[in-house]
## 1
Amino acid sequence: MNNKKRMRVESSDEDDALITVAQHLFRVAQQHLAEPHIEVEMRLCRVDGVPPQRASETFRILHQGSSRHKVRVGVAAEQFERMRADITAAAEERRDDATAAPSGARAPLVEHTTTEDVTVGSARYSYRVVGGTDAASAPQRVPQALLAKRRLAVADVRLFHRPYDVRLSISVEEPSPTAALPPADPPKGYTRHKARTSITFPAQHMRYDLTRVRAGRDETYEVELEGVFDDIRAELTEQWVADALQGLVRLVSPATPTSADR
């Protein structure tokens, strides 16, 4: 069967391009489905250092090692706030629909968390930050997880008619073999403070993570969509990739980016 007919993508001028990109990204992910603890995530970014757009070219797929492009993860602060509001509103609407639906419907979930991650080599020490909401109380770090992350594949999609691009990452993230939890006192390493809103759509096997990240004096606003699968081999399909890709693209204004944006 022709995949372009089988896959559902909302009608727009970008239909064929999104389907082609989704098919390619699915093939990238499919090569690694046998790995345990696999993570599939897409995030908004800016791809720089790409040769000029060719006539009628709407996108370009780039792989690490085969291109000298550079990637800056994140979006502008004002766009971040708009995107968070849009996704939260969509979750509230679907939650109302789930409430009215027959028993068993899985409603979207909105969560807010504050964490501190310390990376040392391939290990990530993760702490949940609680308290510290007023001057009288200091924030407390609660050990949450000690993980080892290994990246399997990366594909970057330059979207020529959008102010942001998309990065697909396939990774393995598994508990560290040395300890179940990080020590009470964080080790010295690359430290990132994260204030995150996570919006999960269980029926679609998707979670949006919108995170304000502070590392030293740098602050970024990251927008990511991650697969939340019960059975990744059955639920990670070309259609899921197409829906996830379109979900991110829909967040982005189609207006031509300014020089400051790019």
Note: The chain has five helices and ten strands.
## 2
Amino acid sequence: MVTVLHSDDQLLRAEVDLATTAERSPAAPLPGLPTDLPSDLVDALDVRPGDRVLEIGPGDLTALLRDAADREPTVVGPSAAEGHTAGAPYDRIIATCAVPRLPLAWLDQCAPGGLIVAPVGGAVARLTKRHDGRAAGRFLHHQAAFPPLHRDPAPAPAAPDPQARRRTTELDARALDHPGFAFWAGLRLAPTITRSGHTLHDPTSGSTARPDGPAAVALSGPRDVWCLVEAAHRNWLAHNRPRPEWFAVEAGPEAQYAAYTAPNGTTTRWVL
């Protein structure tokens, strides 16, 4: 049995500011991310001598990619959703900026049999381009918050609502810091609910839920938004606490999916 659910651009909202490439060496660790992440990402890309490589981001991986491919990679900035057509097709494409779904330009510019490594839908995905034009693979275990491909101006923090209702909860907001649950909750709550840190917002009803201590939440608006994350957490526990690397991912011109197969063989797919 396959269940299909929907998602949107709110799966990952990172708050990491990148310095310019000129301010640090090309092989320097990505700021705010694990120091071993750059080499892990390049290892996942499986670059071989002579490979044509496209790097999308500020150039943090350039030195490592050059050493692996024995040639200069093509580097485009972290807002390059269109990739770089002039050098296509590429044997390897890697991005260090987060996208809710894989830009079709990246998919088109990857050669059949080539690999793409990028933060997609809230976790790092590794996909192989197939001859039918689609790409499939799995999410990796690497956990980090990447800056988004398109950086929107940060919204002004909402003032506390003096009319907010307060209720108790058994779910500590810090549960959203767990990479497995954060990924699961992002898939289940989108597109109707957006998240900024531990605060949830329903744009349709104007409802908001924010932590008010470790065992309470403050609710504004007509909808109890926090009950949705509580339900998502119970569902995550019931599914054996799946982590991102337990999910498959598939991308194509028609649709893109994240899929989880439970031990009983039931597969759930979310549209990215």
Note: Confidence is low (pLDDT under 50) at residues 1-28.
## 3
Amino acid sequence: MRKIVVSTWTTLDGFVAGPRDEMDWLLIDDQMYRYERELVEGSGSLLLGRITHTDFAGHWPRAAQDPDETDEVREYARRVDTMEKIVVSASGNIAAWQNTRRLERVDRDEVIELKRGHGKDIVVYGSLAVIRALVELRLVDEFHMLVHPVALRDGKALFENGRPPQRLELVSAEPFTSGVVLMKYRPVDRVPPPPEPRHNRRQSSLPGSVAAREPSQRAQPGPKWSPNTATDSAVRSFRPAHRSGL
């Protein structure tokens, strides 16, 4: 059964972006890039919100063919471009991008069906609405938190206020020379679904190709990114700010 892995950059005080989506606090180096590359190489699908999907669609297909990018960036871009993308969008107004499917909402049964599918794990980037819905349904199997040595004091928090405590157990911790620590946690209260009987397996209820069956939105070209660049605009193309729109 596939795992759902939420991967996020965060600060010491639990924010994933500034109040206006600022990401200028990030520390990107070769170790960070190695983690990101290994994550997508070892995964089969991306689960994204609509805005994150649009940002990615506007950058990675172009970066995969850009001769001005480094070999490492093109390799990462090609992997992201060819992976299955599952985008959560109530409106259906999403960017046309190869290998994209749509979920109207984060539905427990549909997500469990995804987890029961064949292939590698499912990585969640970006949308706080998607992450919080998965947390509420106890469907997240692992959190990968890249904790930065900075306190923003204000911004967009990964976990909502006013909700019950989210208890986690540590899987591993890896410090980077930049001061970032990659913390991998497993939710204590996750509810892994029981294996479905072999004779009762159903086909996924996800719709087919978005480009053929859903209204499309032209993806806007995004800025370039390189492992040694940490400007706000460049960072957005690699890991867009956490926004809640679907």
Note: Confidence is low (pLDDT under 50) at residues 200-237, 240-246.
## 4
Amino acid sequence: MSIRKQLQGYIAAKDIAPEHVAAALQVSKLRPNHGQWFTFIEQLLLWCAALALVIAALFFIAYNWDDFGRFSKFAGLEVLVILAVASYLKWGKQALVAQVSLMAASIAVGVLLAFFGQTYQTGADPWQLFAIWAALILPWVIVGRFSALWMLWLTLVNLALVLWLVDLRPRWLFFPMYESLLWAMCIVNGLALVAWELILRPCLALTERWSFRLIATVAGTSLTLLALEPIINHNEYSQVDNTAVVVWGLWLLVSVVCYRYWRRDLFMLAGAALSFDTLVVCLFARLLLNDFDIGGFLVLALIIIGLGVGSAIWLRNVQRGWQQ
């Protein structure tokens, strides 16, 4: 158990007097001191400088588009990529500088591809830009071992997949376009979450929680929207397809078991509870509000309050069980 969670347990149990909480935070080093604030500001400025440099190069070339020749435009962007990679090779032992350098190089590659398509008008579909971009920076993503870089790569993969489905509309799709997009987002990000938990986290030491929580949020939101489809759009003339509801139920069960007993994470359990509450509320809204009866709104409000309170109590009991 982390020091933060232990201290939260002591404060909740009133083992630490309220007037001593500030001192406890200072002793446990959970409250940042002047040196930590200085480090944070230094890192923030470094990230802002790298981002500003890439954006400045983009706008500089765009503003002087008519004044530069083709080779001048590409040379400027290629020099930016080379400088970023050279910075990584020179200061690779400094983790932050190396991460910023690879991130800047990865973004610059995308800008370079965009200028290439704009200059030569290749006629390529937009999804190809993101697919090629993701393929080109994949070696850097693997070498960098940086969660934000993996998130950039996964975002490109999602964009390429969505644009590919929208542009080509394959005939083998089993669902309408809206549902197909949600299924694609759910499957891709679900597989990414499994790979993150089983491969990337142990092998590449990617332990930042925000990254896999973001992936889980996208996958869970997509699956929840799919499960809502047969509830919201169902009518007496339509045929109900409960595939998404079944998959959603299995996902909910696996998520609760994994993140309660295997890899404890209250955020993931809260997301599962929110998904469950959303589906139940929509189901009762469908049943109670067909005639817009005022009594139905009252009952629905009570159901929402009950689900919210029940979820909060369950999450609190789970957290207390972990602290024992």
Note: The chain has a mean pLDDT of 82.
